[in-house]
Write a structure and sequence with these properties.
Elements: H1 2-22, E1 27-34, E2 39-46
């Protein structure tokens, strides 16, 4: 089980880093983590 938690943390870190690099003045990238069900998502929100 410890290895599974390590994988979860690695995935979350990768997605968070990616999201941080994708954000700019017009588009904000946000991460959504459902840890209980192991669902991970990146959402791009545009401000007009």
């Amino acid at each position: 089980m410890d290895k599974l938690n390590q994988y979860r943390e690695i995935i979350q870190k990768i997605l968070k880093d990616y999201s941080d690099r994708r954000s700019d003045e017009l588009v904000e990238s946000q991460t959504i983590f459902d840890i209980e069900r192991d669902h991970y998502q990146i959402v791009n929100v545009r401000f007009v």
